[in-house]
Automatic annotation (TrEMBL):
<dbReference type="GO" id="GO:0046872">
    <property type="term" value="F:metal ion binding"/>
</dbReference>
<feature type="domain" description="Peptidase M16 N-terminal">
    <location>
        <begin position="38"/>
        <end position="167"/>
    </location>
</feature>
<dbReference type="Pfam" id="PF05193">
    <property type="entry name" value="Peptidase_M16_C"/>
</dbReference>
<dbReference type="InterPro" id="IPR011765">
    <property type="entry name" value="Pept_M16_N"/>
</dbReference>
<dbReference type="InterPro" id="IPR007863">
    <property type="entry name" value="Peptidase_M16_C"/>
</dbReference>
<dbReference type="InterPro" id="IPR011249">
    <property type="entry name" value="Metalloenz_LuxS/M16"/>
</dbReference>
<feature type="domain" description="Peptidase M16 C-terminal">
    <location>
        <begin position="192"/>
        <end position="374"/>
    </location>
</feature>
<feature type="region of interest" description="Disordered">
    <location>
        <begin position="1"/>
        <end position="28"/>
    </location>
</feature>
<dbReference type="Pfam" id="PF00675">
    <property type="entry name" value="Peptidase_M16"/>
</dbReference>
<protein>
    <submittedName>
        <fullName>Insulinase family protein</fullName>
    </submittedName>
</protein>
<dbReference type="InterPro" id="IPR050361">
    <property type="entry name" value="MPP/UQCRC_Complex"/>
</dbReference>
């Protein structure tokens, strides 16, 4: 008779004690050329992230040349006084580095990622790009053509088209914020290498720039590396530009961007509100998350789960621009798409959610889930050096203290349900929202007018 084998059971592993976590606070210093440097040692992060912020905001672009900051940002990696565009790309590839750049309202940002063992080489290339960009005629012309090719695709994208219309509606005509960040066909078409170089020479200098370096810095003499590379970049000691105030018109109204035959309607509902300098920001973040930050939020529960109008609707707050004196603004918005026949009912239910929120408030359970999701997953969110560097760069860009993010998580955890409710209700008042709909006006105009959420205007899709 065969003896049956016995099975040995082991005890189930138990979770260990959670380790305390806080967003890292950087060290701060400067180079002899005036460049501000933030550094953050992250053991084990062998891919180092470097962010360089340039005080070249969009409102500094010359009249008629909207988009020149974007073309300049893209041209930084298209050759220097030492390397042609092809050679520069090859040198980056040899050291396993990536270099990206973009322009936005606060300024231009360059983002470098490279293995720690090749940081010296990559910093040299980054320094060359900042110190002596080629801005060759042919390369700038190519970048302009590429940008002109992108614009029709952006206008054909309902979400991008809605964002363009909301900016035009919210901000006064003539202000930079009312116009597309990367320019229009007319303004981009007027850009050449001369205008790019003129913008560079007027606004790009180390004295008004900041570099953020994050990663495993073990064994690296970062001071020497920075001094030999970014420290060789020279320029005048001009003062930072004054930041103009953000003004907006959030009278409740609806604009339909007509797309005949569209089977879906893109929704973008927004206004401007408090930025991160305001004491209400933590409560506003928490309340907005409860409203539309995840699949379990109120908007999704009604519009997606109960009614089946959409694949998802999100509410969010995005800082537009901040100033050293604490003034600034954020875009507070709700976005998503619904099928065309249900555009009216979906908006009706969305407004009902907002009114019910104002009347009844959030629940403690909603608040607790939001805190768990926002604070509890923060260590995972910042596992990479790039994520930490990007957030530190945001803090610099928005004139916030170096310990801001760490403080924010403590404030989120301490924010109560009543405070979160008041903040989100004030952020999304039902009578002060500008609603942009990209869809078939012949089908959606009448049911939207019947809702009484504001005067309805129809504009062509272009």
């Amino acid at each position: 008779m065969t003896e049956l084998a016995t099975m040995e059971f082991h005890s189930q592993p138990q979770a260990g004690e959670p380790k305390p976590w806080a967003f890292p606070e950087p060290g701060r210093g400067s180079l002899d050329n005036g460049l501000t440097v933030l550094r953050c040692h992250r053991p084990g992060q062998q891919v180092v992230a470097v962010e360089v912020l340039l005080d070249a905001p969009l409102d500094a672009e010359p009249a008629g040349l909207d988009g020149v900051a974007t073309i300049m940002a893209r041209a930084f990696s298209e050759g220097t006084d030492k390397h042609s565009a092809e050679d520069f790309a090859a040198e980056l590839e040899r050291c396993g580095a990536t270099l990206d750049a973009h322009a936005d309202h606060p300024g231009v940002r360059l983002s470098l990622e490279v293995p720690a063992s090749r940081l010296a080489k990559a910093l040299g290339l980054l320094a060359d790009a900042l110190r002596a960009p080629a801005f060759a005629d042919g390369e700038v012309e190519r970048l302009v053509r590429n940008r002109l090719d992108e614009i029709p695709h952006e206008l054909a994208n309902p979400a991008r088209r809605a964002a363009k219309e909301l900016s035009k509606e919210l901000f006064p005509a003539g202000t930079r914020m009312s116009r597309p960040r990367q320019g229009t066909e007319e303004t981009v078409g007027a850009i050449d290498s001369g205008s790019v170089r003129a913008f560079y020479e007027k606004h790009v200098r180390p004295a008004t720039a900041t570099a953020v370096v994050v990663g495993d810095l073990t064994g690296l003499d970062l001071d020497a590396l920075l001094g030999d590379t970014l420290g060789a970049w020279t320029g005048s000691a001009a003062e930072p530009r004054p930041v103009p105030p953000v003004t907006a018109d959030d009278r409740g109204r609806v604009v339909i961007v007509d797309r005949p035959g569209a089977v879906q309607t893109q929704l973008l509902i927004g206004r401007t509100g408090s930025d991160r300098h305001d004491r209400v920001w933590p409560a506003q973040v928490l309340g907005t998350y409860c409203l539309g930050g995840t699949l379990t939020s109120r908007l999704d529960r009604v519009l997606r789960e109960e009614k089946g109008y959409t694949y998802g609707v999100r509410a969010f707050g995005q800082v537009l621009r901040s100033a050293p004196d604490g003034t600034g603004a954020a875009m507070l918005a709700i976005s998503g798409s619904v099928d065309t026949p249900n555009t009216g009912p979906a908006l009706d239910d969305l407004w009902t959610v907002l009114r019910k929120l104002a009347a009844e408030g959030l629940t403690d359970a909603e608040r607790d889930v939001a805190v768990q999701n926002l604070v509890g997953v923060a260590p995972l969110k910042y596992e990479t050096a790039a994520a930490v560097a990007s957030t530190l760069a945001d803090q610099v860009e928005q004139h916030l203290p170096d310990d801001y993010q760490a403080t924010l998580y403590r404030q989120l955890a301490a924010t109560g349900t009543v405070e979160a409710t008041a903040a989100v209700v004030n952020a999304f008042p039902v009578d002060r929202l500008v609603t942009v709909l990209v869809g078939d006006a012949s089908q959606i105009k009448e049911p939207v007018e019947a809702l009484g959420i504001g005067e309805v205007t129809v504009v062509a899709a272009e």
